[in-house]
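Message: I would love a firmer grasp of how sequence relates to backbone shape in proteins. Thank you; the sequence and its tokens follow:
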Amino acid sequence: DDDSEPRAKGDAASRLSSEALDSYSLDELDARIALLEMEISRVQQHRARSAAHRQAADALFGGKG
């Protein structure tokens, strides 16, 4: 699998971005924002770990250059 390729349209982020928000209260929107911010942080941390792992492997085995 090539991780540089975009995910299929059916992924969670695509579904979230197309959801209508009209029925949400301000409190529900605030809660949703907080959850999304936590998820963004989790993904950023995972990405940083993956990048460090890739960089270490490239240094050890010689990467694309």
